[in-house]
Amino acid sequence: MKIHHQLLLLFTALLTMNVHCEKDETTPPDQLPPYSQIGANTMGCLVNGRVFIPREHDLYGYSFEYYKNDLTLYIDRKGERVYIGIWDKTVTDTGAYDLTYKGTQREVYYLPPPYAPGFQTNPLHTGKLHIRYWDKQHHIMAGTFYFDAIGDDSSIVHITDGRFDMIYN
Fold first, then answer.
1. Is 18 among the domain residues?
2. Which of 15, 80, 89, 106 is found 20 to 30 A from 95 (Cα to Cα)?
3. 96: domain range?
């Protein structure tokens, strides 16, 4: 009977530990703004698996500009920035756009806070921006992006699950 009592205590202890050790079932991509095509003015991504979205109270937490077939998109959180600039007059329709650094034509980088030496794409570390929806009459553009970028010390940052749904002027 003593063994049954000890087993019962052990079972109760394990059950109690299991209740207190439940994991949060919310995964980082679920914390990003949902992918949409309505001009919601949202964007976000994962930086090495960590959710990166502009804070509600940041004055300039994000920017999205489309002008004369050039596109600029960035997310900024108090000195940490994900930046995509495509300035070679090629953004004319939906589809995939290469995110390889090309000097004054394409700039793709990640800056850790506070604007420390950053990470930049190159021919070996690149990515894609996919424009999946474009309503030119209502000035709405939505899509996804990802890229890998390399730092001066050869470390790599992975920007994944990027998404945007923006109204542009």
1. no
2. 80
3. 31-167
Q: How far is it, in rounded angstroms, from Cα 167 to Cα 165?
A: 7
Say which residues have a Cβ less than 8 Å from residue 149's Cβ, sequence separation at least 6.
108, 109, 110, 118, 119, 120, 121, 125, 156, 157, 159
89 CB contacts (<8 Å, ≥6 apart)?
A: 68, 69, 70
Does the pTM surpass 0.70? The reply is yes
Q: Could you tell me if residue 113 is inside a domain?
A: yes
Q: What is the C-alpha separation between 127 and 153, in angstroms, rounded?
A: 20
List pLDDT tens digits, range 105-159.
Answer: 999 999 998 767 899 999 999 999 999 999 999 999 999 999 999 999 999 999 9
- Residue 83 included in any domain: yes
What residues pair up with 151 in beta bridges, in sequence order?
119
Please tell me the distance from the alpha carbon of residue 97 to that of residue 90, in angstroms, as a whole number.
9
Q: Is 10 exposed, middle or buried (0-12, 13-18, 19+ CB in 10 A)?
A: exposed
